Amino acid sequence: MRNKYEVISALGATLLLSASAAQASDGLDEYRQRFEPLPHLPPLPATNSQTEEKVELGNMLFFEPRISSSGVISCATCHNPALGWSDRIPRAVGHNGQVGERNTPTVLNSGFLDAQFWDGREPDLEAQALGPIQADVEMAMQLEHALERLAEFERYQDKFSAAYPDQEDPINADNLGQALAAFQRTLNTPDAPFDRYLRGDMDAISEQAKNGMVAFVDNGCIACHRGANFTDSQFHAIQVPGSTDLGRYVVTGEERDKYRFRTPTLRNVGVTYPYMNNGATETLEEAVAIMGQEMLGREFDEPTIDNITAFLHSLTGEMPDFEVPALP
Amino acid sequence: MRNKYEVISALGATLLLSASAAQASDGLDEYRQRFEPLPHLPPLPATNSQTEEKVELGNMLFFEPRISSSGVISCATCHNPALGWSDRIPRAVGHNGQVGERNTPTVLNSGFLDAQFWDGREPDLEAQALGPIQADVEMAMQLEHALERLAEFERYQDKFSAAYPDQEDPINADNLGQALAAFQRTLNTPDAPFDRYLRGDMDAISEQAKNGMVAFVDNGCIACHRGANFTDSQFHAIQVPGSTDLGRYVVTGEERDKYRFRTPTLRNVGVTYPYMNNGATETLEEAVAIMGQEMLGREFDEPTIDNITAFLHSLTGEMPDFEVPALP
Predict the structure, then answer these.
(1) What does each C-alpha distance from B7 to A283, B21, B23, B199 come to in angstroms?
(2) What is the DSSP string of A71-118?
(3) Residues B29, B107: Cα–Cα separation, whole Å
């Protein structure tokens, strides 16, 4: 029996696809229903309207190394567009070569997260954006000093004024965070092969990936990695090999939060290695095996690991458009 | 009386421009003859054929931070496309936040230089490219280790093989240097306003810039800043405020080379501040004044400084096309 969702979904497919594709089914409808394709834009907060001017300013600021105290580290240093908007090293390297405690999360689709950072210490991208600028092991900059540097440039004065036209003194921390957040909300990968599959293109992913999808559901991975962005935005306790990181406990001080981390997105996980909060796991196969052991108490056999890995690769979308801005 | 060059030049202008523009003259032909527009490509060395495959590989390598020992510093860190392919800080910041002795030269039009680095210690881009990778204060990487890291990636194996199809073991230092050089030879700015002016568009630069061109010639700036890339590729002694750098002496050990530096290009000088070998000079006006004093023994008055500065801004071209590569 079809539920309402299925009817709507089938209707959508009929409208979108050729007749033969619309009628196609691979017998996995029940599984596919458990997932959602990624929307093209994340939810936009009422307090930060998404304007072109803000996005353009945020794009400039994202690539601006002079808001770091060394003058050479920008957001794009660790969230490198050449490297899946992350850095592909175990733990972030920042000011004076200091190595942080955690693996850099990609900013791709980060607008879909309900909590930012591994420990969820900020609720949204606006607040998140100001953290790494000030963190001693990252950009190591005093926010006030960063704003002063920006204000020295006529072009930043103009761009901030254009983005915040009603404000007398728009170069401030709130607007810095807003513009960076607005830009990051454009960095989404909505058309991954798996999204096309969910929208009715039965051949968009391989048979092996489909088997992986089935294993992903049947083994319960989907309990935490769920929804359009493959995360419940909740905190779960895990201590991966080599990690002594207390996780969310650092934020709340509550005993029950020890070693808890926010479930990371699995979108683009194929291009955002290495894995785990400490980045100690190099391959996706290894990561799948560890998650089976640590979170599900299961020893996946090799075919299962390979299938789930193939499925995870189908979550890699096209990298979003952006420009390397010409900075003043 | 017209010389052969003028006739050819006028003919070119007739072919390229509307009749009125071709006949236009601003009475400064004698000055214009002293300059050359920048070709679209620099001289290509016989030993490094410029192929698409090499350029593509070089583009990848230019943005590849994993050939640095920290894993986060690439060529593009200091030669940042967002910042005129330089870094806009006085002296380069490299491995573990170490500050080098010299200001980062832009890579724009660097294929036109006859000697690389401030002290000319390498003759070409092939040899230049391998320096910063290994320098302790820059990427601090052993070349062998860099090559090993690249060889770990199947995609680099494929790309090196495609660029060097007849070689059995193409991931080597020579090819690394060649590919980076080939890519950098695409980073040119041939259509600056001043080039368009030289090619016959009399309105491409302002009256003030034309006055600056006249002052640039009449005061002898052109003696060293000459040719299409505004440098004689020779070494001249200068000790700017705050610098104790021995310059070319470091390379040759010869007394007469003390404090000598290769004449830097003036192309894109408007977007590659700060200035001088130690980057201690922030504005172009100040740089022009210092060069007048130190190199020409003249105190330029303010209008002259402003005119020369306007002229120098006309040497800023459109930034070249490139792609931020998706790295493996």
Answers:
(1) 66, 16, 12, 13
(2) SS--HHHHSBGGGTTB--SSS-B-GGG-B-SSPPPP-TTGGG-SSBST
(3) 31
Digit-coded pLDDT (tens) for B225-251: 999 999 999 999 999 989 999 999 999
Q: Let me know: does B185 contact B262? Beta carbons within 8 Å.
A: no
Partner residue facing B326 (CB), from A82, A93, A325 = A82
For residue B326, give the amino acid letter: A
Contacts of B128 (CB under 8 A, 6+ apart): B110, B116, B117, B122, B177, B181
Distance between CA atoms of residues A113 and A95, nearest Å: 27
Q: How far apart are the C-alpha atoms of B250 and A241, rounded to whole Å?
A: 49
Residue type, A195: D
Residue B249 CA to residue A128 CA, distance in Å, equals: 49
Which residue, among A192, A221, A204, A197, has the nearest Cα to A284 in the 3D structure? Answer: A221
Residue among B197, B232, B214, B204 at smallest CA distance from B308: B214
Phi, psi of B2 (to 5 degrees): -90, 135
Pairing of strands B235-237, B260-262: antiparallel
CA B85 to chain centre: 9
Read off φ and ψ for residue A313, nearest 5 degrees: -65, -25
Measured in degrees and rounded to the nearest 5, phi and psi for residue A86 equal: -140, -155
Report the residue of A95, A155, A323, A324 to disrupt the B interface, i.e. the one with the largest count of B CBs within 10 Å.
Answer: A324
- A contacts of B96 (beta carbons < 8 Å): 96-97
Mind listing the pLDDT tens digit for each residue in A137-179? 999 999 999 999 999 999 999 999 999 999 999 999 999 999 9
> What span, in angstroms and rounded, lies between the C-alpha atoms of A109 and A318?
12
As a whole number of angstroms, the distance between CA A67 and CA B15 comes to 49
Q: Which residues touch A152 (CB under 8 Å, ≥6 apart)?
A: none
Bridge partners, residue A275, by sequence: A281
Contact B97 A71 (CB under 8 A): no
Let me know if B138 is a catalytic residue: yes
Select from B97, B271, B326 the Cβ nearest to the Cβ of A319.
B326
State the Cα–Cα distance between residues B303 and B308, nearest whole angstrom: 9
B95 annotated to bind ligand: yes
Taken in order of first residue, the domains within chain A and their CATH numbers are 4-33+190-313 (1.10.760.10), 52-184 (1.10.760.10)
Closest by CA to A271, choosing from A228, A213, A313, A237, is A313
Judge contact between A162 and A173, C-beta under 8 A.
no
* Tally of helices (H runs) and strands (E runs) in chain A: 14, 2
CA geometry: angle at B80 spanning B78 and B86, to 5°?
Answer: 65
ipTM: 0.89
> For A9, phi and psi rounded to 5 degrees?
-60, -45
CA A309 vs. chain centroid, Å, equals 18
Distance in angstroms (rounded) separating the CA atoms of residues A232 and A118: 13
* pLDDT (tens digit per residue) in A34-48: 999 999 999 999 999
Does B154 lie at the interface with A, CB-CB under 8 angstroms?
A: no
> Residue B143 and residue A15: Cα distance in Å, rounded?
57
Residues 6+ apart with CB under 8 A from A292: A219, A298, A299, A300, A305
pLDDT digits (tens, 9 = 90+) for A64-103: 999 999 999 999 999 999 999 999 999 999 999 999 999 9
User: Which pair of structure tokens corresponds to residue B31?
Assistant: 């000055």
